[in-house]
Give the backbone structure.
Amino acid sequence: LEENRTVMELGGGYGKFAYYILKKMKNFTYIDLDIPETLTLASYFLSKCFPENRNFFYGEAEFNKDIETNYELIFLPPWEIEKINENTINLSINKNSLGEMDPLAAKNYLEHIHRTSKYFFSMNHEYFRNHFSDGKKSLINKEYNLDGKYIELISYPDLGHLIYENNKIDYDNNIFFYLFKKR
């Protein structure tokens, strides 16, 4: 039997990236943390893509470790990240949302990702910060490795964003992906 892999995604959208990660995996648990409106789309899309897998939808019961081990597709609002046990996630993913958040909220999610996850894939802003109306500025990729808890395995400009607009190379591309491994 192939070992079960647990993937957690913060802000997974409707589930397209998850689909491509999970489609070749035999034994997996996927935890999607997102706002309720988006979870509705993701739960529909992924449950249709993987009809043989068991789904847990937030509100059916209190989320706990038993749910994490008995369901393959788990859809939760982001505050439920606090209930995920330490070192139980093989890979955490965040694409394009940590850099859109208030820096304190982003740090909170990062602390939980660091607490729970062996590997962390990030695709976010590299140089340019978002500026919020209250004067705060968003975090950038290089600030996601809190207290050096991870080893940076790779960082690279995201090629999809490199030609994202007008099918021309954008030399000011600001989106990089990183892969970190827990020390």
The CA atoms of residues 130 and 174 lie 12 Å apart. Residues 36-49 form the longest helix (14 residues). The chain has a mean pLDDT of 92.
